[in-house]
Amino acid sequence: MPNSMIEINGLFKKYGDRVAVNGVSFCVQEGEIFGLLGPNGAGKTTTISILATLLPPDEGQATIGGYDLARQTNQIKPLIGFVPQELALYPTLSAWDNLAFFGRIYGLRGTPLKERIAAVLDLVGLRDRSGDAVRTFSGGMKRRLNIAAGLIHQPRVLFLDEPTVGVDPQSRNFIFEHVERLKAEGMTILYTTHYMEEAERLCDRVAIMDEGRILALDTTKGLIGLLGGGVIHVGVAAEAIEDLLPAIRTLPHVRAASAQDSRLKVETSAARPALLELIELCNARDVPILSLEVLEPNLESVFLHLTGKRLRD
Ligand SMILES: Nc1ncnc2c1ncn2[C@@H]1O[C@H](COP(=O)(O)OP(=O)(O)OP(=O)(O)O)[C@@H](O)[C@H]1O
Ligand SMILES: [Mg+2]
């Protein structure tokens, strides 16, 4: 097995005229939790569906476990587990029967099937509800069963597409703990989310995705390093902006400054001293500050910095 469990190169996918995935490339190492972080419509589900062999790409190549996605699907399928964003469960069947259904798809029968069902029910903490129909489950329990279904055949690679959407905080923590346990057991995990806290907590590396493209890819720490000490947005009268910019660029704690949406966008090496320097400069020039926003360095502000958009509105 190669070190890179997943390698994708130049993936491209259109739905009609709409480009959903626009030249995406990355590698996921064996045993890594890799996060795809992006807002609605970024192309996360499309990317993960291609890798889960459910959707053919228009262009590009990928390998999973060294097998070619286009030509060796049969070798890839047993290696991967897919937990879709939309729940894929039969509401009238019990938890046990749902898992039996998915297990049979992977060729499990008899005692091995029963053992696997019991193991994954334990893993997601649903053993005592195994006989109940899924329609009687809470949102969080359904999510957990959805994850169990993706694990029934002991895959080595798990695709989790927004596994915590619509889940209460307790189930959410439960899911985090499972994901961490699966990683400790050596599983490779591709995790999509639009919650930056999840990416920060769980992922070894994060790709920031928007409009079908990867804008940045690094460890959380490395991505946050892109912002240096933080970014300050200063609202001043439009006619003052061009005047102020050259002076701002010479301030000791300022790395770069530009005009963005009729505000000054100031990238700093340290936000606090830079803020004092900016206020002093505006006062000295008699320019009233109309608004002020300091973006502390975290994944959300990195995203805003890269795209000019917020992850969630
Ligand atoms: N079956 C489809 N038919 C047509 N367009 C689609 C289809 N699926 C997705 N798209 C479009 O492709 C783009 C990417 O969608 P995708 O579902 O991959 O995004 P996403 O990052 O998973 O978003 P979300 O966070 O909302 O789940 C969007 O513009 C979406 O409208
Ligand atoms: Mg999606």
Task: Write up what this structure looks like.
The radius of gyration is 23 Å and the shape is elongated. β7 (157-161), α6 and β8 (188-193) form a beta-alpha-beta unit. It has helices at residues 44-51, 73-76, 95-105, 110-123, 139-151, 169-184, 196-202, 220-225, 238-249, 271-284, 299-307; strands spanning 4-15, 18-29, 33-37, 59-64, 67-68, 80-83, 157-161, 188-193, 205-210, 213-218, 230-235, 254-260, 263-268, 291-295. By secondary structure, it is of the alpha/beta class. A six-stranded mixed sheet has the order 6-7-8-3-9-10, with helices on both faces. Bound molecules: adenosine-5'-triphosphate (ATP) and magnesium ion. Magnesium ion binds next to α1.
Which key features would you list for this structure?
11 helices, alpha/beta, 2 domains, binds adenosine-5'-triphosphate, 28% strand, Rossmann fold
Question: Which strand-content bin applies to the residues?
Answer: 25-35%
Low-confidence parts lasting 5 or more residues at pLDDT below 50? none
Number of strands: 14
Given helix and strand content, the structural type is: alpha/beta
The total number of structural domains is 2
Globally, the shape reads elongated
CATH topology of the largest domain: Rossmann fold
Oligomer: single chain
Spatial strand sequence of the major β-sheet? 6-7-8-3-9-10
- Helical fraction: 25-40%
